[in-house]
Structures are given as C-alpha cells and as structure tokens.
Amino acid sequence: YDNLAIRRMVVEVVDNDKAGVLIAKTGDSNQVIEGGADDTYSVVLTKAPTADVIVTVSGDSQTSIVGATDGSRTFTFTSTDWNTPQTVTMHAVDDSVKEGKHYSRITNTVSATGGYAGILADSVDATVIDNDVAGILITQSKGSTDVTEITTTVPVGGGQVLELTSGTAIKGTF
Questions:
Q1: Which of 7-16, 78-87, 125-134 is predicted least confidently?
Q2: DSSP annotation string for the chain
Q3: CA 70 and chain centroid, separation
C-alpha cells in the first residue's frame, strides 16, 4: 500500500455537547410522486436531552406525512434513544390539478423541553411530480442513464425527450 492514492472525503463533525437537530435525506433527493413513490428523511438529536424532546413534522397542501393525524406527526426522543435516527415518510397529495413539477416544504418543529428550548430544525424541501400531466420521468442512477423506447409507431430518431417545465429538448433522441 506504499504510495497508494487515497480519495478525498468530506466529513461533517457534529458536536454532541451542543443541543441540535440533524435532518438527513436518505437518498439523492427528496422527491415524491402523486399517486406513486414516497420518499424519506431522518431526524436525530445531537445531544442527550434532560427530558423527552418532541419533533413535530408537518406537511403542506402538497405533501402529507405518513402516520400523521391532524396534518402532523410527532417523534419523541428520550435520553436513551436521542442518537437513534427516526424516519419520516413523505407522501404526495394526489389531487386532480395539473401543476406539473412543483415543490413542497415540510417543517420540523422542536419542543422547548429537555434543554432544547430555542432550537430550530431545518425544513425539508421536496420535489412533487404531478401525475395529472403526461410525461416521462427519467432518474439518473449510478452515473449514467439509458432510455430505451420499443415502439412501432415512432420511427427511430423520430422523437426527442423534452424537459417538462420549459418544453425544450434535452440530450437524447429515440
């Protein structure tokens, strides 16, 4: 292993002496699809609380939180599980409005207990893919994406992939 190159790595150090809330997406993006795929993120405290701390998660008119009652769901952290991430599942509201791709903000509110008074948690912004507008959703994975269309109605090279919001052609033909 002499003179072997080591890849550069970014590391975030979290101080466990200071109260805080970490919000971490579990995939490459926060994206939900009306009538389709949900997405998740995790919530965890940075310091053991002196009493139970409750994080209240609320969607907006475009998203709901799985397991929520009255529009929000609570996650309780104790002095024994404060450093165990809890998973929040976001779900797109399936309406009949033609909105195209749009966005939602999920808020995370922290109780003023257990030494967490005045602590703010980041909100989570999610992309909502509308199922009331025709289109193709292409998601890149592992550095490249191949799109194959098998059809007898469109000649090879006779179509193009369009970007949904602007309608302009992007790389690729079929």
A1: 7-16
A2: -TT------------TTS--EEEEESSSS-EEETTS--EEEEEEESS--SS-EEEEEE--SSEEETT-BTTEEEEEE-TTTTTS-EEEEEEE---S----SEEEEEEEEE-S-TT-TT-----EEEEEE-SSS-------BTTB-------SSS-TTS-EEE-TTT--EEEEE-
A3: 21
Nearest to 137 by CA among 156, 153, 161, 158: 161
CA dist., res. 26 & res. 87, Å (int):
9
pLDDT in tens, 34-90: 888 899 999 999 999 999 999 999 999 999 998 877 778 999 999 999 999 999 999
For residue 33, give both structure tokens: 């699809």
Confidence of residue 149 (pLDDT cuts 50, 70, 90): low
Do 78 and 47 touch, CB atoms closer than 8 A? no
Over residues 104-122, the pLDDT tens digits come to: 999 999 999 999 999 999 9
Cα-based distances in Å from 2 to 7, 8, 9: 15, 17, 20
Per-residue tokens: 149? 């269309």
Q: What type of residue sits at position 60?
A: D
- By CB atoms closer than 10 A (0-12, 13-18, 19+), residue 93 is middle
